Amino acid sequence: MKKETRTYFLIPILIFTGMCLNVHAQHQHPNHSHGEPVQSQGMASMDADAQFIPYNFERHAVGDNDILIEILYSGICHSDIHTVKAHWGTPSYPVVPGHEIAGRVVEVGKNVTKFKAGDYAGVGCMVNSCGVCEHCLRGEEQYCDNGLKTYTYNSRDSFHDGAITMGGYSSNIVVSERFGIQLPEGTPLDKVAPLLCAGITTYSPLRTAQVKAGDKVAIAGFGGLGHVAVQYAVSFGADVTVFDITESKRQVAMDMGAVRYVNVNDPGQLEGLSNSFDVILTTIPYNYDMEMYIRMLKVDGHLIQAGMPPAGEYPSIDTGLLSGCRRVYNTHIGGIPETQEMINYSVEKGIYPEIEVITPAQITEAYDKIEAGEVQFRYVIDMSKL
CB neighbours of 254 closer than 8 A, spacing ≥ 6? Predict the structure, then answer.
């Protein structure tokens, strides 16, 4: 009998700034606010030049189901750069980015049970969703069927009068306790912060692909996402190969447990890799030769796109390469339960990103260095220096 061939298409993920209001869903989760708006200080970009300046703004009052977090650290994600520089369409300026947030709870609403003042808490890529649809009830809030998933910044907040959300490059944030992530006491908050995006964005697809001991796994792109992905894949017992465009990261990759490092700019290192991998996770945030990697997949293998290129730069493929049930698909962060699982696993296994801590005054310079490829892994902003 002929084996069924299924074709999966890579569908670009866009961050939406407009969302419709589902009144029924909102009524299912009343969140009465009786206090005053919360004053916040942040670092904002006023246009696509990404020149960050101090910016004062208001956050909505702490509601009955909300927590107020004093932000201590905020990671810089490549998504921040794409958003601020209008690579995915024009954002709502001014933009206060940041969705890798770690801090301390300083106030809780009267209905809150998950946190108390003094607890450490994190916030990732989302701050709200309808809470009642099929996907929200399954803990997959990123796929909210009612179109009410609210991103941490540059997103229209249907739950708070359509205000545009402001992110973690700031002094504080107010968020529903449902979207707060519990951070165990004693964890290094500066290193935990990037896990709220870089961690879940790589942990989730590796879990979805059911990576296990003995699997042959490739990580394409050994940067802010890729070096975290390598640590997870190694911890799952996989045989990990790293692909990158430079020799400078080879030793670091090997020290993290990779068994092979391939510089794609050296054709000789690419020889003999056809039909080699069960899973390839690509973290490359720009257009690249995806077909080269598809040829490296085994039958029934998975190629998962985690990096998000600018609009118009998505890699394209010849679907004829997908014979043998070779699966090609993208991934979109992870839901809140899985994000908490990822944090707990990371702390237990000691999996953290390599970071460089900077001050808010260095954000503009950090963006320039990231785009120039002059940083190996992750910048984290010390928001106490705001």
Answer: 261
List Cβ neighbours of 155 (8 Å cut-off, separation of 6 or more). Answer: 15, 16, 17, 19, 164, 165
3-state secondary structure (DSSP) of residue 284: coil
Number of other CB atoms surrounding residue 10 within 10 Å: 16
* Residue located via tokens 């801090």: 103
| SS3 state at 111 | coil
Given the structure tokens 């997949």, which residue do they identify?
297
* Count of alpha carbons within 13 angstroms of residue 232, beta-carbon side: 30
* Residue 69: burial class (beta carbons within 10 Å; 0-12, 13-18, 19+): buried
Of 70, 62, 174, 66, nearest to 118 by C-alpha is: 70
> Is residue 52 within 8 Å of residue 170, measured between CB atoms?
no
d(CA 202, CA 361): 29
User: What is the Cα–Cα distance from 305 to 307, expressed in whole angstroms?
Assistant: 6
361-379 b/e with 16+ CB inside 10 Å = b? ebbbebbeebeeeebebbb
List the pLDDT tens digit at each of the 386 positions of the chain: 333 333 333 333 333 333 333 333 333 444 555 689 999 999 999 999 999 999 999 999 999 999 999 999 999 999 999 999 999 999 999 999 999 999 999 999 999 999 999 999 999 999 999 999 999 999 999 999 999 999 999 999 999 999 999 999 999 999 999 999 999 988 999 999 999 999 999 999 999 999 999 999 999 999 999 999 999 999 999 999 999 999 999 999 999 999 999 999 999 999 999 999 999 999 998 888 999 999 999 999 999 999 877 777 778 777 777 777 899 998 889 999 999 999 999 999 999 999 999 999 999 999 999 988 888 899 999 999 99
C-alpha to C-alpha distance for 56 and 78, rounded to whole angstroms: 24
**Cβ within 8 Å of residue 273, ≥6 positions away:** 262, 296
Angular region, 275: left φ>0, alpha ψ -120 to 50, beta rest: left
Cα torsion at 115, 158, 381, 379 (round to 10°)? 110
